[in-house]
Design goal:
disordered N terminus, 5 helices, 9 strands, alpha+beta, seven-stranded mixed sheet
């Protein structure tokens, strides 16, 4: 994924440096260790802000050149309007321009209601999380990003099953690579991360997935 992209409206836009992605994912994994919810009603943004405070004090962000920020507004630089395309939960930049970043989108999973029933929320993870990468709302010039799932009931095994099923049910919309769904990722040489591979118009895209108990 190193070098420059071709065949797009921003033909000379650089890609986020591939060699830095494992460092980011490892820091994310370590930052999530012991990350707990403050209440059953805590929202993604609140958890993510607390996570950011952990990450900002760690390498590779503490001394640069990588910089991490929470809840960063995203605008479409290709159009002449004042619309905000969305807000990336965590954005890592590398001083290569406004289009060059690694985005991390966070969602809650498996929330237990007052009636004791668990809402999986895997469909929301897919439709309001992953799809933001697929349609180019986030990281439209990049080839990778990450999803972070906060598992409220702590059952990561069931959360992964829920997410995998929701991904499979939306395979055509997600433009998944033929015959593939949620796969164990080897990017860190372990089983902490999963990944999905997407064949988008003019580019391939990888989403790394980390589900953590809170």
């Amino acid at each position: 994924m190193s070098g420059t992209r071709t065949g797009s409206a921003r033909q000379f836009s650089e890609l986020f440096p591939e060699r830095k992605i494992p460092l980011i994912l490892d820091a994310l994994r370590r930052g999530c260790d012991g990350l707990g919810k403050t209440s059953e009603a805590e929202l993604e943004n609140q958890i993510t802000t607390r996570l950011y405070k952990q990450l900002a004090r760690r390498q590779p962000f503490r001394d640069g050149p990588l910089d991490i920020r929470p809840q960063v507004p995203v605008v479409d630089l290709a159009t002449d309007n004042a619309d905000i395309a969305g807000q990336v939960d965590l954005m890592v930049t590398c001083a290569r321009g406004a289009d060059v970043y690694f985005a991390i989108e966070a969602k809650r999973l498996r929330i237990r209601g007052k009636n004791g029933r668990v809402a999986a929320l895997a469909d929301r993870y897919v439709k309001e999380g992953m799809m933001r990468f697929v349609v180019g709302q986030y990281a439209p010039m990049m080839q990778s990003g990450a999803m972070l799932g906060y598992v409220f009931d702590g059952n990561v095994t069931l959360a992964r099953q829920n997410v995998s099923h929701a991904i499979g049910a939306s395979a055509p919309t997600l433009q998944l690579r033929s015959g593939q769904g949620l796969l164990a990722s080897g990017i860190l040489g372990g089983s902490s991360f999963d990944e999905t591979l997407h064949d988008l118009t003019g580019r391939s895209f990888t989403i790394y997935h980390l589900l953590v108990p809170v």
